[in-house]
Amino acid sequence: MSDGVEIEIPPRADYVSLVRLVVAAAVELAPSLEPSRIDDLRVAVSEATTNAIQAHIRSGCRGRVKVCCRCGDGKVLVTVRDDGGGFDVDALPEMPPPESPARLGRESGMGISIIRTLADGSSIDSGPQGTEVRFYFEQP
Amino acid sequence: MSVTIHRREQAPWTVLRVGGDLDVVGAPEVRQAVVTAVSDGSRLVVLDLSALDFVDSFGIGAVVGALKRLRQRGGDLAVVCPVPRIRRVFEICDLDRILALHDSVDDATEVQRAGRGSVPRRP
Predict the structure, then answer these.
(1) Domains in chain A, ordered, with CATH?
(2) Mapping DSSP to helix (H, G, I), strand (E, B) and coil, where does residue B13 land?
(3) Any chain B CB within 8 A of the CB of A39?
(4) Can you give the CATH number for the domain in which B90 is found?
């Protein structure tokens, strides 16, 4: 791994757009992903960063959320770490199918699913000390 | 960039043109704009996302909330979403199976006027 960027932000929602901007700019500087894949990367970064900020807010943690993006070894790897209370990765509720009336009752909870769909690979390590979300996009 | 919302009336529709970033910061503003439109008597709302730069699941959640609020009152929501990168997020969330995504406001309102329904209804 070589080029990249590391950011630490306060757990405030208005920093999410800054993280998207910085990560996308770092990836654009390194000749790597197609523009449409950078769009996907921005969405995935937004989901992971917002979840991390909300984890801090829920747990009352005032520490900083850490976002790292590395370009190299044929991929762009993003890691988002928080010090929130964690969650059970295996117990994430499934989204009701579009045909179900219950679908309109779910206005949140799509973020992890979106990351898994957009990225070429992802993993989540979560516990009482916090959560680390890692995902990568393969370079062509 | 934060979200921008411009409202205009195109009877019987209320058109909310949303620009900027529809994320965790912008979503509450869109929710409030729909709540205000409904409280003003609007039952048919177009969310025009032609000028949107970015959307994530929090923005999608605001759209789902708008659709629910309007349908609960016998109304409906149409979404104008001609930008592929924005449309892609809707499709990932299967929202294109709940509501129709139109290429223009005229397209959205014309479909309704022709009586073909603006959105795919559930069985």
Answers:
(1) 3-138 (3.30.565.10)
(2) strand
(3) yes
(4) 3.30.750.24
Contact A118, B92 (CB under 8 A): yes
Query: The pTM is what?
Result: 0.91
- ipTM of the complex as predicted: 0.89
Q: pLDDT tens, B40-93?
A: 999 999 999 999 999 999 999 999 999 999 999 999 999 999 999 999 999 999
> In the 8-state DSSP scheme, what is residue A72?
E
Give the pLDDT confidence of A31-83 residue by residue, as tens digits: 678 999 999 999 999 999 999 999 999 998 889 999 999 998 889 999 999 99
What are the helix (H) ranges across B1-123? Answer: 27-39, 57-72, 84-92, 105-113
* Mutate: best of A17, A99, A112, partner B, most B CBs <10 A: A17
Residue B118: inside a domain: no
Q: Chain B residues with CB inside 8 Å of A50's CB?
A: 23-24, 56, 58
Residues in chain A: 140
Structural domain harbouring B56: 4-106
Say how many domains are in chain B. Answer: 1
Q: Which of A41, A46, A80 to mutate to test the interface with B (most CBs of B within 10 A)?
A: A46
